[in-house]
Design a protein that fits this description.
Elements lengths: L3 E2 L2 H21 L5 E7 L3 H16 L3 E7 L5 H13 L5 E4 L9 H6 L12 H8 L8 H16 L4 H7 L1 E5 L6 H10 L3 E5 L1 H5 L3 H5 L4 E4 L17 E4 L3 E4 L6 E4 L4 H4 L5 E2 L6 H28 L1
Parallel strand pairs: 1-11, 2-3, 2-4, 5-6, 5-7, 7-8, 8-11
Antiparallel strand pairs: 9-10
Bound molecules: nicotinamide-adenine-dinucleotide.
């Protein structure tokens, strides 16, 4: 039987409808969520993400602020941008778009974020809270993977708690923003978790490990890395990869995932498409985290005033 396609666009619409109500409720208490993005240079994928979250912030009537620096900006300029956003009380959440420039010290950039506004949980304090299982913010892409998984299980009549406890989750990719937090979220659901990265592939062990997965989350940024030979029959596959490739026939650029979706359709039980899978949910989740940051800030102000 062909795999169920997990519809990220429909899930994103549901989440957005829920957010509208929550943002309205906060506004009635005098608070408007504010999102800031900080971008260095003009990487096309970062620019496309910036445009999508700006449109979404405007649609949800959140304040939106953009800091756009030239590709050759100094580290001090980047830190100054972050300082401005940290100090601006209208801004609840800050997204630093990657990639930064080659000379920028990414770790110092994340350390300089106000932890209360660090909606992608990249500051060591927030990364630590996430690792301890008591997150202040759950980074939007891994959160979206598990939102889609939970939703798919519920819709197919499977109790998520029991399913995760019995499952082996394999995460391919170990970045700080996607792979590592996905591992932690899997552990928090009591799944048995295996983490693979490029070294696993180089050691020739990737397929051996992924073939045992009941749930496979792939975030490697390698187009078509995963095929039917990597899957256990019936596995649920979450394809995070978004890779621009030139179409051999038309020559035009199109987006593909890390999974050869046409080839795995008869082996997997469910699969997220690219585009239209994890991506649309990630965009809305970022605004959800912005709202959460605004709610926490409003609560702090309320406590201080009391
Ligand atoms: P990254 O480059 O920071 O990390 C990639 C990870 O994959 C690394 O741990 C690396 O070791 C591993 N890897 C690379 N080649 C591998 C191989 N052959 N076998 C096994 N592991 C391998 O990338 P990232 O920021 O985590 O993003 C990964 C992908 O997800 C990219 O395609 C990116 O565009 C996409 N992405 C999508 C969303 C979304 O919302 N859908 C959000 C963020 C990133």
């Amino acid at each position: 039987m062909a795999a169920t396609l997990i519809d990220g666009r429909a899930a994103a619409q549901e989440l957005k409808a829920h957010l509208v109500g929550e943002i309205d409720a906060l506004r009635r208490h005098g608070t408007r969520p504010g999102l800031a993005t900080i971008q260095v240079g003009d990487d096309p994928a970062a620019s496309a993400y910036e445009r999508r979250v700006r449109r979404l912030a405007e649609e949800l009537d959140c304040l939106y602020h953009r800091e756009h620096l030239p590709a050759d900006a100094e580290q001090a300029d980047l830190l100054a941008s972050i300082g401005r956003c940290n100090a601006d009380p209208r801004i609840s959440g800050i997204l630093v778009l990657r990639p930064l420039g080659k000379t920028h010290d990414e770790a110092e950039v994340f350390r300089s974020l106000d932890p209360a506004k660090d909606i992608e949980a990249l500051h060591p304090k927030n990364a630590g809270l996430l690792a301890l299982g008591t997150p202040r913010f759950v980074p939007s892409t891994p959160a979206s993977c598990f939102h889609l998984l939970d939703r798919h299980l519920q819709r197919s009549g499977t109790e998520p708690g029991t399913f995760y406890r019995r499952s082996l989750l394999v995460v391919v990719g170990r970045s700080n923003n996607v792979g590592k937090p996905a591992v932690l979220l899997g552990m928090q659901r009591n799944a048995t978790v295996v983490s693979c990265d490029e070294h696993t592939s180089q050691a020739g062990r990737l397929a051996e490990l992924t073939r045992q997965a009941d749930i496979l989350v792939v975030a490697a940024g390698v187009p078509g890395l995963i095929g039917p030979e990597h899957l256990k029959p019936g596995a649920i596959v979450i394809d995070v990869g978004i890779n621009p490739v030139a179409d051999p026939v038309t020559g035009q650029t199109r987006l593909v995932g890390d999974v050869r979706s046409d080839d795995v359709r008869d082996v997997a039980s469910a699969l997220t498409p690219v585009p239209g899978g994890v991506g649309p949910v990630t965009d809305v989740w970022l605004l959800r985290n912005t709202l959460h940051a605004a709610q926490l800030a409003a609560r702090r102000t309320h406590v201080q005033a009391a």
